[in-house]
Amino acid sequence: MATALQTKEVANQATQPRPTAKAAPAPAPKASPISALRIGRKQAGSIGMVFLSLSAGALLWHLATAINLDFYINFSNVPSPWRVLTAFVGHIQTEIFWTHIGVSMRRILISYTLATVLGIFIGLIMGRSRIARAFIMPYIEVVRPIPAVAWIPLAILMWPTEESSIIYITFLGALFPIVLNTLHGVEQTPEVLVRAVQSLGASRWAVFRHVVIPAALPSIAAGLAIGMGVSWFSLLAGEIISGQYGIGYFTWDAYSLINYQDIVVGMLVIGFLGTGSTAAVKMITKPMLKWQKRTR
């Protein structure tokens, strides 16, 4: 009797499903030390190349001013790098110099923000609507070639203050690259993706949000970077003519006073501010383009 019960218990245990062992999650891939070392070497090489290039340019500049080079380009009145560095160190210790930089940065921030919001909106609408494109494009093609300097007299008459006129001129400079690059990005959206999403029942807004905008982001990012550079050019044109503060006014005032080293100081500060602001735009837009790496 006991043997029969034991046999029945064994049979029941054999027929019961056994718990399956859960598969351990795959460990996240770790970057190998060799890959990290290669990336570090590439970055160090890029930084070293930048330093070498700037050092070579400063050396040529020093030699040209030291021998008063006059071969089609005259360097006799160009200050040496040391004189420019000395003037720059003196200026950064004054409050008015930082006021000039702060005023220019504020103007750039206001005008560039407005141009970004309006430029992306207009570009997206033009890219998805033939009627909007046919209506807006003639204005863009007519106004876009007009240089910033030509806008200054009319801007002074249109706007109540010099500050608002300078911001308006800077806004126009940044607007058109952003609009055109956004339009180009929307036009380059693969139509196959749009039809595939529509076949799944997606609405027009869903197609616009999940297909058109991500596909246009690379061109939008390029337009934002170009627009930042053009906005600095337009800002300086406005500050030179009608400004009382700003790094452009500082540079023009140095020319009026025949202060050659301050002219170069203003030019170099403009260059570094423009480079830094463009790099900031690229850094801000970089997280939006992570999908490009995943698709490669």
From TrEMBL:
Region (Disordered): 1-31
GO cellular component: plasma membrane
Biased composition (Polar residues): 1-12
Any single biological process term in GO: alkanesulfonate transmembrane transport
TM spans (from-to): 44-64, 108-127, 139-159, 165-186, 207-233, 263-284
Protein topology in the membrane: Multi-pass membrane protein
Domain ABC transmembrane type-1: 101-285
Ranges of biased composition (kind: Low complexity): 13-31
Protein name per Swiss-Prot or TrEMBL: ABC transporter permease
Organism for this UniProt entry: Actibacterium mucosum KCTC 23349
